[in-house]
Amino acid sequence: MTNFSIDTHLSPIKKEKPNWGELEFGKVFTDHMFIMDYKEGKGWHDARIVPYQPITLDPAAMIFHYGQTVFEGLKAYLAKDGRILLFRPEKNMQRLNRSNDRLCIPPIDEDLALDALKQLIAVDKEWVPTVEGTSLYIRPFIIATEPYLGVSASASYRFMIILSPVGSYYKEGIHPVKILVENEYVRAVSGGTGEAKTAGNYAASLKAQETADQKEYSQVLWLDGVEKKYIEEVGSMNIFFKINDEIITPALNGSILPGVTRDSIIALLKYWNIPVSERRISIDEVMDAYRDGQLQEAFGTGTAAVISPIGELLWNNEKMIVNGGKTGELSKKLYDTLTGIQKGDLEDPFGWVTEI
Ligand code: COI
């Protein structure tokens, strides 16, 4: 890292804040953003906080043509005592660098990126929403900026952080969502980019998501890209099942996104001495458990989605109604505990929470 000091140019205008009670996900942005550029031979440079505004890029910038980009998602919460808290932000920066490595993007200095993030939030602290169930969503991302149409790694990049006060990701909020098990398309394959947080994985998911929308399902559940048999993840979250009192989540296999919330839920379950397995699980095993009356709960985990109970899974026109379509006891306890730690309402035995 070269020349790291953050220049701050405050916005002359403060935008009007939305009604915190009516926040949707990712539609409103704060007054400032963070930018840092990279150039081969110069390294990362010119770190700055500037007023939130459109950016100008050459139409030949490689991001537009070959999708060389990575991103992260994390949240800041306002505690009752007025502190602003971040949840395991170092994990996101570590994952950003793992994604960078997969996409041939030069690594960022994780400590300096964390510092930038904290300074940006401090500047826009009035944008951390105050209503129950809301938070300030943080979106760090890196794009390839070199104007060049050859397929290769770019010689220049831009790292940015933008902030968005958000409500629930799903319109259902904490109520159970309906999930369509995808049987035609796949999200990722072994050796592909599935475990990196890169735009292409999400672009590839849109076609299946459109079908799910038409059938009034919230998201799709992806199966493995080889046999279309083993469960991978849901569109914007990892997935857990409670079957016969065991909690099962697909093991990380290179094509599943290693979620920070997923990791935290596994740690919480272990802390409570609840049996949890990370292993291969097929959709047939889930269907068999359902038919035997042993599928007790299912829920998704993610930064945006938090803990999202699953009330229904549709697989090949056969419906699995989970826990009578209601939020399960364990999903509720996990949601309450995780959000309680994140907001500073509950003790944090893991040291996960960082104050800004
Ligand atoms: C997140 O949970 O933060 C994500 O990045 C998922 C995204 C699709 C909203």
From TrEMBL:
<protein>
    <recommendedName>
        <fullName>Branched-chain-amino-acid aminotransferase</fullName>
        <ecNumber>2.6.1.42</ecNumber>
    </recommendedName>
</protein>
<dbReference type="InterPro" id="IPR043131">
    <property type="entry name" value="BCAT-like_N"/>
</dbReference>
<keyword id="KW-0032">Aminotransferase</keyword>
<dbReference type="InterPro" id="IPR033939">
    <property type="entry name" value="BCAT_family"/>
</dbReference>
<keyword id="KW-0663">Pyridoxal phosphate</keyword>
<keyword id="KW-0028">Amino-acid biosynthesis</keyword>
<keyword id="KW-0100">Branched-chain amino acid biosynthesis</keyword>
<dbReference type="InterPro" id="IPR001544">
    <property type="entry name" value="Aminotrans_IV"/>
</dbReference>
<comment type="pathway">
    <text>Amino-acid biosynthesis; L-leucine biosynthesis; L-leucine from 3-methyl-2-oxobutanoate: step 4/4.</text>
</comment>
<dbReference type="Pfam" id="PF01063">
    <property type="entry name" value="Aminotran_4"/>
</dbReference>
<dbReference type="InterPro" id="IPR005786">
    <property type="entry name" value="B_amino_transII"/>
</dbReference>
<comment type="pathway">
    <text>Amino-acid biosynthesis; L-isoleucine biosynthesis; L-isoleucine from 2-oxobutanoate: step 4/4.</text>
</comment>
<keyword id="KW-0808">Transferase</keyword>
<dbReference type="InterPro" id="IPR036038">
    <property type="entry name" value="Aminotransferase-like"/>
</dbReference>
<dbReference type="InterPro" id="IPR018300">
    <property type="entry name" value="Aminotrans_IV_CS"/>
</dbReference>
<dbReference type="GO" id="GO:0004084">
    <property type="term" value="F:branched-chain-amino-acid transaminase activity"/>
</dbReference>
<dbReference type="GO" id="GO:0008652">
    <property type="term" value="P:amino acid biosynthetic process"/>
</dbReference>
<comment type="similarity">
    <text>Belongs to the class-IV pyridoxal-phosphate-dependent aminotransferase family.</text>
</comment>
<feature type="modified residue" description="N6-(pyridoxal phosphate)lysine">
    <location>
        <position position="197"/>
    </location>
</feature>
<dbReference type="InterPro" id="IPR043132">
    <property type="entry name" value="BCAT-like_C"/>
</dbReference>
<dbReference type="GO" id="GO:0009082">
    <property type="term" value="P:branched-chain amino acid biosynthetic process"/>
</dbReference>
